[in-house]
Amino acid sequence: MVKITPGKLKNLLFAIFRYAFIIGLIFTVLYPQLNKIVISFRSDADLIDSSILFMPKHFSVDSFIQAADSMDYWTTFLRTVFICALCGLFHVAACTLTAYSIAKFDFPLKKVITGMIILTFLVPPSLISLPLYTTFQSFNIFGMTVTLLDKPVSLLLLYLTANGLKSGLFVFLLMQYFRNMPRVLDEAAEVDGANNWQILFKIALPGAKVMMVTVFLFTFVWQWTDTYYTSMFFNEYTVMSTALNRIASSFAALNAGTDISFIKLSQLTSAGSIIFVLPLIVIYIFCNKTFVQSVENSGIVG
Questions:
Q1: The domain spanning residue 129 has which CATH number?
Q2: Domain for residue 186, yes or no?
Q3: Looking at the domain assignment, is residue 176 inside a domain?
Q4: Has residue 48 been placed in a domain?
Q5: Is residue 248 part of a domain?
Q6: DSSP-assigned beta bridge partners for residue 50
Q7: Structural domain tally of the chain?
Q8: pLDDT digits (tens, 9 = 90+) for 254-288
Q9: Model confidence pLDDT, tens digit, residues 201-247
Q10: What is the DSSP string of the chain?
Q11: Residue 234 — φ and ψ, nearest 5°?
């Protein structure tokens, strides 16, 4: 007979509690998502079958087809990929130049500017939404006033000037990386006659590839899922995050005057959410290693 000491019993009970807590947390987080996926694959007959608790009796992809038609999926998908990719490239360029300048050069008010960058972490987007909206509504170019609302250029200008989503965070991460680069590399390049631009492009940027790719990926993903700026700047111009709203309007227009259950609308919305987030899941599967390496290379510990 195995004798269990008080210490082993304590560890066993703690392990049981830990695993029960983790399983419960996973269930709480994943169950709504799994339920949404399962409902999306139900046929119309299964939606009104009260005997079905979870898995459908008849699998169907009609809800995905209807949701994609309502979203004009492929046109909107390609348009959103193009906009998010440009935003990512502009964000990488702006954040990298800003971070490198702060990390490598001394200039007046450097500490103040660094503190203001960190302070942007605390500023909610809603606080600057009105100034941004009025700026792009009446944008002044060489004395001429034009409207940049409902045009992709409004978002691109934000990222090109390092004022996009989480720009302060990306500048800070890149700044930490450039600060941790050995100074002797720059000094050796200077001895060989390299100027600041040559040091940047031939020494600093090649070593920062992982960080730059991470900035691009995060910008792409966050802009893809953003509903705040896109709903504020875009009205008729549709991207993936705003296309989900078209499912409800299309459903109401097609079924006006008919007795169609809102369960069907819920199913179409669930199907639309799945095909909306599916490209991001693919990106994460192939690029999760890059995300981990970026945190390691940033020099942030603790």
A1: 1.10.3720.10
A2: yes
A3: yes
A4: no
A5: no
A6: none
A7: 1
A8: 665 555 677 788 888 888 889 999 998 888 888 77
A9: 888 888 888 888 888 988 999 999 988 888 888 877 888 888 888 88
A10: -PPPPHHHHHHHHHHHHHHHHHHHHHHHHHHHHHHHHHHHTB-HHHHT-TT-SSS-SSB--HHHHHHHHHHTHHHHHHHHHHHHHHHHHHHHHHHHHHHHHHHH---TTHHHHHHHHHHGGG--GGGSHHHHHHHHHTEEETTEEE--TTSHHHHHHHHHTT-STTHHHHHHHHHHHHHHS-HHHHHHHHHTT--HHHHIIIIIHHHTHHHHHHHHHHHHHHHHH--HHHHHH-SSS--HHHHTHHHHHHHHHHTTTS---HHHHHHHHHHHHHHHHHHHHHHHHHHHHHHHHHHHHHT---
A11: -110, 135
pLDDT tier, 83 (very low <50, low <70, confident <90, very high otherwise) = very high
Residues of the domain holding 134: 72-243
pLDDT in tens, 110-150: 888 888 888 887 777 778 888 888 888 888 877 788 888 88
pLDDT at 72: 87
Q: Stretch 94-106: mean pLDDT, rounded?
A: 89
